[in-house]
Write a structure and sequence with these properties.
This protein is of the alpha+beta class and 109 residues long. The chain contains 3 helices and 4 strands; from the N terminus they run αβαββαβ.
């Protein structure tokens, strides 16, 4: 999952939690991964980024030990299976979605 957004008018009504629960059911037995704007970078929206990370943590995701860096910025990676996840396969998958025009890389936290 690259991006999950719930409209401001309907936030705090459990829609995001329901979406993640549905996704977990659809992906049973497989890791679910999301990229979120990196926390702790001093960004203007740092408070929003911290709340977003807390949302994923409350919903069973864990912060990975690496980050994704691409042309648009730095992203924290959260996943439902941090210990069993194949990061090289992940990079290959998201790289293939960009039809060889997208070349992200993983960096240490």
């Amino acid at each position: 999952m690259f991006y999950l957004a719930v409209g401001e008018a309907v936030r705090s009504r459990d829609f995001g939690t329901q979406l993640l629960a549905w996704l977990a059911g659809e992906c049973a037995g497989r890791a679910v991964v999301a990229n979120i704007e990196a926390v702790g970078t001093g960004a203007a929206n740092e408070e929003q980024r911290v709340r977003r990370l807390a949302f994923y943590t409350r919903n069973g995701y864990a912060l990975a030990d690496c980050r994704l860096l691409d042309d648009s910025g730095l992203y924290d990676i959260v996943t439902t299976s941090p210990g069993d996840f194949d990061w090289e396969e992940y990079l290959e998958l998201i790289g293939s979605l960009g039809f060889d025009a997208y070349h992200p890389r993983l960096v240490s936290r």
